Amino acid sequence: MRETPVISLKPKKEESVLRFHPWIFSGAIRSMEDGIKEGDLVSLRDSGGNFLAWGHYQVGSIAVRILSFKEEECIDRAFWQQKIQTAYRLREALGLIRPGANNCYRLIHGEGDGLPGMVVDVYDKTAVMQAHSVGMHQVRQLLAEVLADSLPGLKNIYYKSETTLPYYAPVEAEDGYLIGGNTDSEALENGLRFRVDWLHGQKTGFFIDQRENRSLLEHYAGGRVVLNMFCYTGGFSVYALRGGARLVHSVDSSAKAVELTKQNVAANFPADDLRHAAFAEDAFRYFKDNGQAYDLIVLDPPAFAKHRSALHNALKGYQRLNARAFEQILPGGLLFTFSCSQAVSKEQFRLAVFSAAAESGRKIRILHQLTQGPDHPINIYHPEGEYLKGLVLAVE
Predict the structure, then answer these.
(1) Does residue 364 contact residue 332 with C-beta atoms inside 8 Å?
(2) Taking a C-beta distance cutoff of 8 angstroms, is the pair 218, 240 a contact?
(3) What CATH number corresponds to the domain at position 142?
(4) Do 309 and 378 reside in the same domain of the chain?
(5) Using one digit for the tens of pLDDT, what is the confidence trace for 112-162?
(6) Sign of the alpha-carbon dihedral angle for 379, 66, 69, 75
(7) C-alpha angle 137/96/214, rounded to 5°?
Protein backbone atom coordinates (compact mmCIF):
# COMPACT_ATOMS: atom_id res chain seq x y z
CA MET A 1 0.00 0.00 0.00
CA ARG A 2 1.38 3.39 -0.98
CA GLU A 3 2.50 5.60 1.90
CA THR A 4 0.79 8.97 2.19
CA PRO A 5 2.84 11.40 0.03
CA VAL A 6 4.35 14.49 1.62
CA ILE A 7 4.02 18.19 0.79
CA SER A 8 6.51 20.49 2.52
CA LEU A 9 5.97 24.18 3.17
CA LYS A 10 8.35 27.09 2.91
CA PRO A 11 9.79 28.48 6.16
CA LYS A 12 7.21 30.32 8.28
CA LYS A 13 4.36 29.32 5.96
CA GLU A 14 3.05 26.91 8.58
CA GLU A 15 1.70 29.80 10.67
CA SER A 16 -1.80 29.64 9.16
CA VAL A 17 -1.94 25.90 9.84
CA LEU A 18 -0.97 26.47 13.45
CA ARG A 19 -3.96 28.85 13.61
CA PHE A 20 -6.12 25.97 12.25
CA HIS A 21 -6.96 27.61 8.93
CA PRO A 22 -8.10 24.74 6.68
CA TRP A 23 -6.50 25.92 3.40
CA ILE A 24 -2.93 25.90 2.11
CA PHE A 25 -2.27 28.14 -0.87
CA SER A 26 0.06 27.05 -3.67
CA GLY A 27 2.53 29.86 -2.96
CA ALA A 28 3.27 28.39 0.48
CA ILE A 29 4.56 25.08 -0.90
CA ARG A 30 8.31 24.43 -1.01
CA SER A 31 8.29 20.89 -2.39
CA MET A 32 6.07 17.95 -3.27
CA GLU A 33 6.94 14.29 -3.58
CA ASP A 34 6.85 12.92 -7.10
CA GLY A 35 3.65 11.32 -8.29
CA ILE A 36 1.14 13.33 -6.26
CA LYS A 37 -2.14 13.53 -8.18
CA GLU A 38 -5.09 15.84 -7.72
CA GLY A 39 -7.40 14.44 -5.06
CA ASP A 40 -4.66 12.49 -3.25
CA LEU A 41 -4.56 12.44 0.54
CA VAL A 42 -1.28 14.11 1.54
CA SER A 43 0.74 14.66 4.69
CA LEU A 44 1.56 18.32 5.21
CA ARG A 45 4.93 19.12 6.79
CA ASP A 46 6.73 22.30 7.84
CA SER A 47 10.19 23.22 6.50
CA GLY A 48 11.78 21.17 9.28
CA GLY A 49 9.84 18.03 8.41
CA ASN A 50 7.41 18.21 11.32
CA PHE A 51 3.87 16.98 10.79
CA LEU A 52 1.19 19.68 10.40
CA ALA A 53 -1.97 18.14 8.92
CA TRP A 54 -3.67 15.63 6.61
CA GLY A 55 -5.46 17.02 3.58
CA HIS A 56 -6.59 16.63 -0.02
CA TYR A 57 -4.27 18.00 -2.69
CA GLN A 58 -5.73 19.96 -5.57
CA VAL A 59 -4.39 21.96 -8.50
CA GLY A 60 -4.99 25.69 -8.21
CA SER A 61 -4.63 28.57 -5.80
CA ILE A 62 -5.97 26.51 -2.89
CA ALA A 63 -3.52 23.62 -3.02
CA VAL A 64 -4.51 21.63 0.08
CA ARG A 65 -7.83 21.42 1.90
CA ILE A 66 -7.10 20.22 5.42
CA LEU A 67 -9.10 17.33 6.90
CA SER A 68 -7.29 16.81 10.21
CA PHE A 69 -4.58 18.45 12.29
CA LYS A 70 -3.95 15.25 14.30
CA GLU A 71 -1.07 13.03 13.17
CA GLU A 72 -2.54 9.98 14.92
CA GLU A 73 -5.91 10.33 13.14
CA CYS A 74 -6.57 7.96 10.27
CA ILE A 75 -8.64 9.23 7.34
CA ASP A 76 -10.78 6.12 6.99
CA ARG A 77 -14.43 5.10 7.18
CA ALA A 78 -14.51 5.72 10.94
CA PHE A 79 -13.20 9.26 10.38
CA TRP A 80 -15.97 10.11 7.89
CA GLN A 81 -18.57 8.46 10.13
CA GLN A 82 -17.52 10.51 13.15
CA LYS A 83 -17.68 13.77 11.15
CA ILE A 84 -21.14 13.01 9.75
CA GLN A 85 -22.55 11.87 13.09
CA THR A 86 -21.20 14.98 14.82
CA ALA A 87 -22.83 17.16 12.16
CA TYR A 88 -26.14 15.30 12.51
CA ARG A 89 -26.16 15.68 16.30
CA LEU A 90 -25.63 19.43 15.93
CA ARG A 91 -28.67 19.73 13.63
CA GLU A 92 -30.68 17.70 16.13
CA ALA A 93 -29.60 20.05 18.93
CA LEU A 94 -30.58 23.05 16.80
CA GLY A 95 -34.13 21.67 16.56
CA LEU A 96 -34.02 21.40 12.77
CA ILE A 97 -35.14 17.78 12.59
CA ARG A 98 -38.82 17.94 13.51
CA PRO A 99 -41.07 15.30 11.91
CA GLY A 100 -44.18 16.90 10.45
CA ALA A 101 -42.71 20.42 10.67
CA ASN A 102 -39.14 20.59 9.33
CA ASN A 103 -37.31 17.88 7.41
CA CYS A 104 -34.88 19.91 5.26
CA TYR A 105 -31.54 21.17 6.50
CA ARG A 106 -27.88 21.36 5.53
CA LEU A 107 -26.10 18.43 7.09
CA ILE A 108 -22.55 19.13 5.87
CA HIS A 109 -21.30 22.66 5.25
CA GLY A 110 -17.73 22.17 4.08
CA GLU A 111 -15.16 23.77 6.35
CA GLY A 112 -17.86 24.62 8.89
CA ASP A 113 -18.26 20.91 9.60
CA GLY A 114 -14.63 19.93 9.13
CA LEU A 115 -15.18 18.46 5.66
CA PRO A 116 -13.81 21.06 3.22
CA GLY A 117 -14.97 20.55 -0.33
CA MET A 118 -18.22 18.78 0.57
CA VAL A 119 -21.81 19.99 0.91
CA VAL A 120 -24.79 17.78 1.82
CA ASP A 121 -28.39 19.00 1.98
CA VAL A 122 -31.16 16.77 3.31
CA TYR A 123 -34.75 16.93 2.03
CA ASP A 124 -36.84 14.44 3.98
CA LYS A 125 -35.66 11.00 2.80
CA THR A 126 -33.17 12.32 0.22
CA ALA A 127 -29.67 13.72 0.70
CA VAL A 128 -28.12 15.78 -2.10
CA MET A 129 -24.33 15.61 -2.10
CA GLN A 130 -22.12 18.17 -3.86
CA ALA A 131 -18.32 17.95 -4.12
CA HIS A 132 -16.13 21.01 -4.69
CA SER A 133 -12.82 19.13 -4.71
CA VAL A 134 -11.48 16.05 -6.48
CA GLY A 135 -10.55 14.54 -3.12
CA MET A 136 -14.17 14.55 -1.99
CA HIS A 137 -15.31 13.37 -5.43
CA GLN A 138 -13.12 10.30 -5.09
CA VAL A 139 -14.66 9.26 -1.75
CA ARG A 140 -18.26 10.03 -2.79
CA GLN A 141 -19.47 6.41 -2.71
CA LEU A 142 -17.96 5.76 0.70
CA LEU A 143 -19.50 8.98 2.02
CA ALA A 144 -22.87 7.97 0.57
CA GLU A 145 -22.71 4.62 2.38
CA VAL A 146 -21.77 6.31 5.66
CA LEU A 147 -24.61 8.82 5.22
CA ALA A 148 -27.09 6.00 4.64
CA ASP A 149 -25.87 4.23 7.78
CA SER A 150 -25.87 7.39 9.93
CA LEU A 151 -29.19 9.11 9.11
CA PRO A 152 -32.42 7.42 10.24
CA GLY A 153 -34.93 7.11 7.42
CA LEU A 154 -32.62 8.22 4.61
CA LYS A 155 -33.52 6.36 1.38
CA ASN A 156 -31.87 8.27 -1.49
CA ILE A 157 -28.53 9.98 -2.05
CA TYR A 158 -28.19 12.11 -5.16
CA TYR A 159 -24.78 13.29 -6.34
CA LYS A 160 -24.81 16.71 -8.04
CA SER A 161 -21.28 17.86 -8.86
CA GLU A 162 -21.07 18.25 -12.65
CA THR A 163 -20.82 22.04 -12.32
CA THR A 164 -19.01 22.37 -8.97
CA LEU A 165 -15.76 20.46 -9.46
CA PRO A 166 -12.83 22.53 -10.80
CA TYR A 167 -13.25 22.78 -14.56
CA TYR A 168 -9.67 21.60 -15.17
CA ALA A 169 -9.96 18.58 -12.85
CA PRO A 170 -8.98 15.25 -14.48
CA VAL A 171 -12.32 13.61 -13.67
CA GLU A 172 -15.68 13.23 -15.33
CA ALA A 173 -18.45 13.79 -12.81
CA GLU A 174 -21.96 12.71 -13.71
CA ASP A 175 -24.97 13.75 -11.68
CA GLY A 176 -27.05 10.83 -10.50
CA TYR A 177 -28.18 8.66 -7.62
CA LEU A 178 -25.49 6.91 -5.60
CA ILE A 179 -28.14 5.19 -3.48
CA GLY A 180 -31.85 4.82 -4.20
CA GLY A 181 -33.66 6.69 -6.96
CA ASN A 182 -36.93 8.08 -5.62
CA THR A 183 -37.70 11.51 -7.12
CA ASP A 184 -40.38 12.52 -4.58
CA SER A 185 -39.28 16.11 -4.07
CA GLU A 186 -41.47 17.71 -1.43
CA ALA A 187 -39.83 19.11 1.68
CA LEU A 188 -41.18 20.71 4.85
CA GLU A 189 -39.66 23.91 6.21
CA ASN A 190 -41.23 25.30 9.38
CA GLY A 191 -44.52 23.68 8.43
CA LEU A 192 -44.53 24.98 4.85
CA ARG A 193 -44.37 22.68 1.81
CA PHE A 194 -41.87 23.16 -1.02
CA ARG A 195 -41.15 21.22 -4.18
CA VAL A 196 -37.40 20.74 -4.49
CA ASP A 197 -35.88 20.20 -7.94
CA TRP A 198 -32.46 18.73 -7.19
CA LEU A 199 -32.33 17.14 -10.65
CA HIS A 200 -32.46 20.39 -12.62
CA GLY A 201 -32.48 23.22 -10.07
CA GLN A 202 -29.64 25.50 -9.08
CA LYS A 203 -27.01 24.08 -6.71
CA THR A 204 -28.64 21.45 -4.50
CA GLY A 205 -32.18 22.53 -5.32
CA PHE A 206 -33.52 24.82 -2.56
CA PHE A 207 -31.72 27.55 -0.64
CA ILE A 208 -31.93 26.36 2.96
CA ASP A 209 -29.52 29.05 4.14
CA GLN A 210 -32.32 31.66 4.14
CA ARG A 211 -34.68 29.76 6.45
CA GLU A 212 -34.30 32.06 9.49
CA ASN A 213 -34.40 35.15 7.28
CA ARG A 214 -37.64 33.94 5.69
CA SER A 215 -39.10 33.56 9.17
CA LEU A 216 -38.08 37.13 10.00
CA LEU A 217 -39.77 38.39 6.86
CA GLU A 218 -42.94 36.51 7.84
CA HIS A 219 -42.93 38.50 11.09
CA TYR A 220 -42.93 41.80 9.19
CA ALA A 221 -45.19 40.88 6.25
CA GLY A 222 -48.64 41.49 7.77
CA GLY A 223 -50.77 43.83 5.65
CA ARG A 224 -47.90 44.74 3.32
CA VAL A 225 -47.54 44.69 -0.47
CA VAL A 226 -44.44 42.55 -1.07
CA LEU A 227 -42.05 42.17 -4.00
CA ASN A 228 -39.86 39.06 -3.95
CA MET A 229 -37.22 39.79 -6.57
CA PHE A 230 -35.11 36.81 -7.75
CA CYS A 231 -37.77 34.59 -6.19
CA TYR A 232 -36.30 31.26 -7.40
CA THR A 233 -38.83 28.75 -5.95
CA GLY A 234 -40.76 31.33 -3.95
CA GLY A 235 -39.52 30.75 -0.40
CA PHE A 236 -39.84 34.37 0.74
CA SER A 237 -43.18 34.65 -1.10
CA VAL A 238 -44.73 31.69 0.73
CA TYR A 239 -43.55 32.97 4.11
CA ALA A 240 -44.89 36.46 3.31
CA LEU A 241 -48.30 35.01 2.48
CA ARG A 242 -48.41 33.05 5.73
CA GLY A 243 -47.41 36.24 7.53
CA GLY A 244 -50.54 37.97 6.23
CA ALA A 245 -49.19 39.99 3.30
CA ARG A 246 -51.93 41.80 1.41
CA LEU A 247 -50.32 41.12 -1.98
CA VAL A 248 -47.14 39.34 -3.09
CA HIS A 249 -45.40 39.65 -6.46
CA SER A 250 -42.69 37.09 -7.29
CA VAL A 251 -40.20 37.87 -10.06
CA ASP A 252 -37.47 35.72 -11.61
CA SER A 253 -35.82 35.67 -15.03
CA SER A 254 -36.34 31.90 -15.17
CA ALA A 255 -39.76 30.77 -16.35
CA LYS A 256 -39.15 27.41 -14.67
CA ALA A 257 -38.46 29.12 -11.34
CA VAL A 258 -41.66 31.12 -11.69
CA GLU A 259 -43.61 27.92 -12.36
CA LEU A 260 -42.12 26.27 -9.26
CA THR A 261 -43.03 29.36 -7.23
CA LYS A 262 -46.63 29.09 -8.40
CA GLN A 263 -46.69 25.40 -7.44
CA ASN A 264 -45.30 26.13 -3.98
CA VAL A 265 -47.81 28.91 -3.37
CA ALA A 266 -50.65 26.62 -4.50
CA ALA A 267 -49.39 23.77 -2.28
CA ASN A 268 -49.57 25.98 0.81
CA PHE A 269 -52.48 28.31 -0.06
CA PRO A 270 -54.68 26.43 -2.57
CA ALA A 271 -57.69 28.76 -2.20
CA ASP A 272 -55.79 32.02 -1.91
CA ASP A 273 -54.42 32.73 -5.39
CA LEU A 274 -55.73 36.33 -5.51
CA ARG A 275 -52.94 37.50 -3.18
CA HIS A 276 -50.10 36.26 -5.39
CA ALA A 277 -48.83 36.84 -8.91
CA ALA A 278 -45.56 35.67 -10.48
CA PHE A 279 -43.66 37.12 -13.44
CA ALA A 280 -40.82 35.75 -15.57
CA GLU A 281 -38.87 38.95 -16.11
CA ASP A 282 -35.41 40.49 -15.83
CA ALA A 283 -35.04 42.37 -12.54
CA PHE A 284 -33.90 45.70 -13.96
CA ARG A 285 -36.52 45.59 -16.73
CA TYR A 286 -39.23 44.86 -14.17
CA PHE A 287 -38.20 47.81 -12.02
CA LYS A 288 -38.13 50.04 -15.11
CA ASP A 289 -41.46 48.96 -16.63
CA ASN A 290 -43.56 48.22 -13.54
CA GLY A 291 -45.08 51.19 -11.74
CA GLN A 292 -46.21 49.22 -8.70
CA ALA A 293 -45.04 50.62 -5.37
CA TYR A 294 -44.22 48.20 -2.55
CA ASP A 295 -43.83 48.51 1.19
CA LEU A 296 -41.64 45.41 1.51
CA ILE A 297 -39.06 44.37 -1.08
CA VAL A 298 -36.75 41.34 -1.03
CA LEU A 299 -33.57 41.40 -3.13
CA ASP A 300 -31.87 38.00 -3.06
CA PRO A 301 -29.89 37.80 -6.32
CA PRO A 302 -27.59 34.98 -7.39
CA ALA A 303 -23.89 35.54 -6.76
CA PHE A 304 -22.79 38.63 -8.68
CA ALA A 305 -19.11 37.77 -8.05
CA LYS A 306 -17.97 34.15 -7.92
CA HIS A 307 -14.34 35.27 -8.21
CA ARG A 308 -12.44 38.36 -7.09
CA SER A 309 -11.83 39.35 -10.71
CA ALA A 310 -15.56 40.17 -10.93
CA LEU A 311 -15.68 42.13 -7.66
CA HIS A 312 -15.78 45.67 -9.11
CA ASN A 313 -18.65 44.91 -11.48
CA ALA A 314 -20.49 43.01 -8.73
CA LEU A 315 -20.40 45.96 -6.34
CA LYS A 316 -21.70 48.24 -9.09
CA GLY A 317 -24.47 45.72 -9.72
CA TYR A 318 -25.50 45.67 -6.06
CA GLN A 319 -25.53 49.46 -6.00
CA ARG A 320 -27.72 49.70 -9.12
CA LEU A 321 -30.11 47.03 -7.91
CA ASN A 322 -30.63 48.57 -4.48
CA ALA A 323 -30.99 52.03 -6.00
CA ARG A 324 -33.91 50.73 -8.11
CA ALA A 325 -35.52 49.23 -5.01
CA PHE A 326 -35.24 52.52 -3.09
CA GLU A 327 -37.06 54.22 -5.98
CA GLN A 328 -40.09 51.91 -5.68
CA ILE A 329 -40.43 51.37 -1.96
CA LEU A 330 -43.08 53.33 -0.09
CA PRO A 331 -42.37 55.52 2.95
CA GLY A 332 -42.33 53.28 6.01
CA GLY A 333 -41.33 50.32 3.86
CA LEU A 334 -38.75 47.62 4.50
CA LEU A 335 -35.98 46.34 2.27
CA PHE A 336 -34.49 42.87 2.81
CA THR A 337 -31.32 42.94 0.70
CA PHE A 338 -28.70 40.18 0.36
CA SER A 339 -25.42 39.15 -1.23
CA CYS A 340 -24.41 35.49 -1.42
CA SER A 341 -21.09 36.26 -3.16
CA GLN A 342 -18.22 34.90 -1.08
CA ALA A 343 -15.84 37.33 -2.83
CA VAL A 344 -17.84 40.29 -1.46
CA SER A 345 -17.17 41.18 2.18
CA LYS A 346 -19.79 42.47 4.61
CA GLU A 347 -18.13 45.89 4.52
CA GLN A 348 -18.08 46.03 0.72
CA PHE A 349 -21.72 44.99 0.47
CA ARG A 350 -22.81 47.56 3.02
CA LEU A 351 -20.85 50.26 1.16
CA ALA A 352 -22.65 49.36 -2.09
CA VAL A 353 -26.03 49.61 -0.32
CA PHE A 354 -24.93 52.85 1.39
CA SER A 355 -24.06 54.33 -2.02
CA ALA A 356 -27.50 53.40 -3.33
CA ALA A 357 -29.13 54.90 -0.24
CA ALA A 358 -27.19 58.15 -0.64
CA GLU A 359 -28.23 58.28 -4.28
CA SER A 360 -31.88 58.01 -3.22
CA GLY A 361 -31.59 60.86 -0.70
CA ARG A 362 -33.98 59.05 1.66
CA LYS A 363 -33.62 58.45 5.40
CA ILE A 364 -32.71 54.80 5.85
CA ARG A 365 -31.90 52.84 9.00
CA ILE A 366 -30.49 49.35 9.56
CA LEU A 367 -32.83 47.17 11.62
CA HIS A 368 -31.13 43.79 11.25
CA GLN A 369 -27.83 42.40 9.97
CA LEU A 370 -28.39 38.91 8.61
CA THR A 371 -26.31 35.87 7.71
CA GLN A 372 -26.79 32.20 6.81
CA GLY A 373 -28.71 29.79 9.03
CA PRO A 374 -27.02 27.87 11.86
CA ASP A 375 -26.91 24.67 9.81
CA HIS A 376 -24.39 26.57 7.64
CA PRO A 377 -21.89 27.02 10.51
CA ILE A 378 -18.81 29.19 10.12
CA ASN A 379 -15.52 27.70 11.26
CA ILE A 380 -14.09 30.43 13.52
CA TYR A 381 -10.66 29.81 11.97
CA HIS A 382 -12.10 30.15 8.45
CA PRO A 383 -13.96 33.49 8.18
CA GLU A 384 -14.29 32.94 4.42
CA GLY A 385 -17.16 30.61 5.27
CA GLU A 386 -19.43 33.57 6.06
CA TYR A 387 -20.69 34.03 2.52
CA LEU A 388 -24.28 35.25 3.02
CA LYS A 389 -24.67 38.93 3.96
CA GLY A 390 -28.00 40.61 4.51
CA LEU A 391 -29.52 43.85 5.77
CA VAL A 392 -33.07 44.75 6.76
CA LEU A 393 -33.54 48.47 6.14
CA ALA A 394 -36.33 50.79 7.23
CA VAL A 395 -36.98 53.35 4.50
CA GLU A 396 -38.71 56.67 5.24
Answers:
(1) no
(2) yes
(3) 3.30.750.80
(4) yes
(5) 999 999 999 999 999 999 999 999 999 999 999 999 999 999 999 999 998
(6) positive
(7) 95
Distances (CA, A) of 314 to 166, 284, 317, 385: 22, 15, 5, 19
Q: With 0.85 as the threshold, say if the pTM is over it.
A: yes
pLDDT at 1: 42
Instruction: Kindly compute the dihedral angle of the four CA atoms of residues 313, 315, 320, 322, in this order, to the nearest 10 degrees.
Output: 150
Residues in the chain: 396
- The model's pLDDT over 333-385, given as tens digits with 9 standing for 90+, comes to 999 999 998 888 999 999 999 999 999 999 999 999 999 999 999 999 999 99
Please compute, for residue 209, the number of CA atoms within 13 A of its CA located in the half-sphere on the CB side: 24
> b/e per residue, 76-91, with b = 16+ CB within 10 A?
eeebbbebbeebbebb
Domain count, the chain: 3
One-letter amino acid of 209: D
Residues 63/44, Cβ–Cβ less than 8 Å: no
* Contact between residue 133 and residue 117 where contact means Cβ atoms under 8 Å apart: yes
User: Beta strands 41-45 and 51-57: pairing type?
Assistant: antiparallel
On whether both 176 and 121 belong to a single domain, the answer is yes
Residue 73 to residues 70, 80, 143, 278, Cα–Cα distance (Å): 5, 11, 18, 53
Which domain, by its residues, includes 57?
Answer: 6-68
